Amino acid sequence: MSKPREITIFAPDCNLCMGCLDLAPEIFDFDETLNRIRIIKNPVTPEEVNLAMTSCPGQAIIFVDQED
Ligand code: SF4
To answer: For residue range 16-68, what is the model confidence (pLDDT) as tens digits?
Structure first.
């Protein structure tokens, strides 16, 4: 298992499709007050966020350290 890394969501690229909630509900939640995706587990290992990250239509889920 790789080292956990901080992730964030680049809001302008997020279309609120809710795909990440379906794929990784332990990491993502929807904040109804702010009308945006909220990260509820951070940092995460690349393995556990990989599917949601690669499936995001806007590629809005990114690593904060930008190593890749
Ligand atoms: S999968 Fe991407 S575009 Fe869809 S809600 Fe999550 S962060 Fe936003």
So the answer is: 999 999 999 999 999 999 999 999 999 999 999 999 999 999 999 999 997 65
For the whole prediction, is pTM greater than 0.85? Answer: yes
Total of domains in the chain = 1
Give the number of the atom of ligand 1 that is nearest the alpha carbon of residue 61. Answer: 7
Assess if residue 46 is contained within a domain: yes
Domain that holds residue 20: 7-63
Ligand 1 neighbours, Cβ below 6 Å, are 9, 14-20, 37, 56-58, 60-61
CA–CA gap between residue 33 and residue 7 (Å, rounded):
21
